Amino acid sequence: MTKNKNIKTVKNENNSGHGVKKKTIGDIVIYIILGLITLISFLPFWHILACTFASASDVRESAFLLFPKHFTLSTIKYVFASKSITQALLNSVFITVVGTLSSLIMTALMAYPLSKPHLRFRNQIMFLIVLTMVFHPGMIPNFLNVKDMGLYNSIWSLIIPGLIGPYNLILIKNYYQSLPESLLESARIDGADDWRILIKMIVPLSKPIYATVGLFYAVGYWNSYLNAILFIDDSNKWPIQVLLRNIVLMAQTDLGSEAGSVFEMAIDLQSLRSATIFISILPILCVYPFVQKHFVKGIMLGSVKG
Amino acid sequence: MANVKTKETKMNVMRKKSLWSELKRDKMLYLMLLPGVLFFVFFKFRPFEWFGIAFFEYNPFIKNPFAGEFVGMKYFSMLFKSSNFWMLFKNTLLLSVYSIVFFFPLPIVFALLLNEVDNMIYKKAVQTITYIPHFFSWVVIAGISFTLLAKDGGSVNNLLEFLGGTRVAFLTSASWFRPIVIIQQVWKDVGWGTIVYLAAMTSIDPSLYEAASMDGAGRFSKIFYITLPSIAPTIATLLILRMGSFMDTSFDQLFLMVNDVNRSVGEVFDTFIYTQGISNGKFSYTTAVGIFKSLVSMIMVVSCNWVAKKLGNEGIM
């Protein structure tokens, strides 16, 4: 977005120009508004957490459960005892780990030649890549293509069709271009070929953008459910999101919940639903703090035009 | 004339030679490019071949999309004559318009507020927490929404009743569909949306604020005369690009929220293609719908990008 190459990260930048001064009423109002926004972002998640670890009676009795009276692990244990859920978690871990690694390698590799302005046909290739961002074949042609490639009902159908994201490719390519050219030039004079330069110099320098793009890929693989619904028929190969969807949709319609018995079931379902939601976002929450410091910088540097 | 021609052919020969030597010199780079290019060919371009079944009757037993009986524009005219067409178009358009009107300005306001915060720890904490929902899947967001909004046992309805109101069937009501969808988008992405604006704000020259302060400008004048004009190009670019992608309603989200009760307002092109194509097997018809959607999308994005560039902003291309 910006052409300034020495972008500082947002965190250590204070450009509002107020300097050190007393807090005015306006400041306090802003702090309170921001606090409220943060609370709204946080409360639904906390509610899910509370429902996961609260006893069934707590969930049933409180209007908006935030602090359970009776702490219990029974819902979580129940979820982990379920064979289909553990299988789905394993599938998701496999898809995410293998998918993210292959995507990163493929994207980092393809971005390198494209970062060389002198490369013949580079502009034509870039044009075609941007074209895939604005002109999509659509769901049915993609579905038939995957089927035609023999990937239907294979867990690889959840990895291979999304190996390289054009946006991520451009982010990495732009990041490579922002690296000092003189450094690479000196390596070339020392007789290093392109493979050596890529592996020994570019890769170690590009850790922030790899962390950013890696997070995007990982979140994408972990969160995707649509491909599984389209391409996977065998429920043993479902990722956790598809299972969560089924649990969520079970209680979605209020249509049938007129009867009292269904009401009872909906409450139990509420704990189950919360626990599954909790498990499915836990890995993201674990990785997020470590990657978080990178992505603002990564996005800003990656979006430098070149 | 002949002279010119020989000159041209001479130059062509030279260019050919240099092209060959360039390819030879960069053979390592092309080797690196190969896996990616193969990926794009097989998974980004090869699906276009199946556009064929919009014009040739689809046959599940024949792998060739052009082998079926030629039907011409039959499926396109079927789409345009169908009563569904205007419903789909209206629902898609309205969801996008609502999203632009009610969602789009919020990250800007949020970023302006964040920019006013001097306490870096507080600012960082707000950013860290409000970015998180962006990384939740739509299934999780839908799950949280159902937990909060269910008619029986849903927390929002519990609170409504507690405050003396009556329970509302949020999830099975056509009139609540659009507000809920927009609220979900806001909850998920309002924090994440600030990144671009905050990035644009970091490149504002601090001396502008100092000078303004010395002239006695207050907080609001600084926001209106310095901050907003500085991020205006970013706002314009993002707005134009958002308008360009108006056909791309978030399918992942809507697919979870649409049910038989709210289908009249919730059905958009994408969900229609899924239910008619994947569920009901009308591959030829839904491919035609998809082609129509892709074409309109592309025209919109390209022309909005063109407008963005004409106005002196950076586009995406």
Structural class determined from secondary elements of chain A: mainly alpha
What is the C-alpha radius of gyration of chain B, as a whole number of Å?
Answer: 27 Å
- Tell me which protein chains meet in the greatest interface and how many residues each side has: A-B, 114 and 119 residues
CATH topology of chain B: MetI-like fold
Secondary-structure arrangement, i.e. CATH architecture of chain B: Orthogonal Bundle
Shape of chain A: globular
What is the arithmetic mean of pLDDT of chain B?
88
Question: What structural class do helix, strand and pairing data of chain B support?
Answer: mainly alpha
Named at the architecture level, the CATH assignment of the largest domain in chain A is Orthogonal Bundle
Short description:
The complex is a heterodimer of chains A (306) and B (317). Chain A has helices spanning 25-53, 56-61, 74-81, 83-114, 122-134, 139-148, 166-178, 181-189, 194-205, 207-223, 226-231, 240-250, 260-302. Chain A is mainly α and 306 residues long.
Q: How would you describe this structure to a colleague?
A:
The complex is a heterodimer of chains A (306) and B (317). Chain A has 306 residues and is an all-alpha fold. Chain A has helices spanning 25-53, 56-61, 74-81, 83-114, 122-134, 139-148, 166-178, 181-189, 194-205, 207-223, 226-231, 240-250, 260-302. Chain A has 13 helices and no strands. The longest helix of chain A is centred in the C-terminal third of the chain and has 43 residues, at 260-302. The relative contact order of chain A is 0.14. Chain B is mainly α. Helix content of chain B is 71%, strand content 0%. Chain B contains 16 helices and no strands. In chain B, helix 4 packs across helix 9 and helix 12 (219-244) runs antiparallel to helix 16 (283-310). The radius of gyration of chain B is 27 Å and the shape is globular. Chain B starts with a helix and ends in a 7-residue tail after the last helix. The model of chain B has no long low-confidence stretch (mean pLDDT 88). The interface between A and B is large, with 114 and 119 residues.
